[in-house]
Design goal:
By secondary structure, the protein is mostly beta strands. About 10% of the residues lie in helices and about 30% in strands.
Length: about 240
Amino acid sequence: MKLVHTVAPVLALLGLVACGKEETQPPPATPSSATAAAPVDTAPKAATPATPETAAAPAPTAPAATPATPATPPAPAAADKTFTHSKLGFSFSYPDTLTVKEDAKGATVSSAQPIAQVEDRSGKSKKPVDTFYTIKISVEDGAIPAVAKKTNPSFGDAFPKGSEKDFKEQKDFAEKVTLGAGTGYSFVMGSHGEGEHDLFVPGKTGKTIVVKCSVTGDNFKPKMSPADQGAACNKVASTLKP
């Protein structure tokens, strides 16, 4: 960096020297003829006190952060219960939101309260009637093809020669499924928003276990959704042990 020096000029005061003669001095200046130089005030000046108008406003204080509200934890998934028939010996798991009642041929799993009101197709009432979600499990004599045909003749058509080896799948109606107890067969029927899902599961020797699950569609606005109905049905069928 280049430094620049500023030099102030120095003024010399010159006196006059009289040579050989005495020079007459001028009369002293009087107050009227000379103006006294005003003294220079070199004392530091006190700062002007601040007024309310000129005082700086205090810096705003940031508001305290509001603690975040903890998120509501999701509701825990329904736990499962296990049922074992006291005489027939078969067992299965089911959601603990449902109830189970044993009978001589099997058991019925159902909702504790109605899940919807539906049209009474029996003709006994013109008003909608309450409907419950149900899963009926029963032990039947005979092999799967024979029991399926006895349950519904149209099911028998899926076994044209009366044997499981000849089973013919039909889209959205008849399907072969793999369950805990072995290979089973699933049939779905329904109309007007109501239906039934039937499964035929191998039981003990010479026995077939039939699982019948009710289906109530969305058009009835059921309290138990069709997805939950299907999950409960699959839970029972997949955990069924002869």
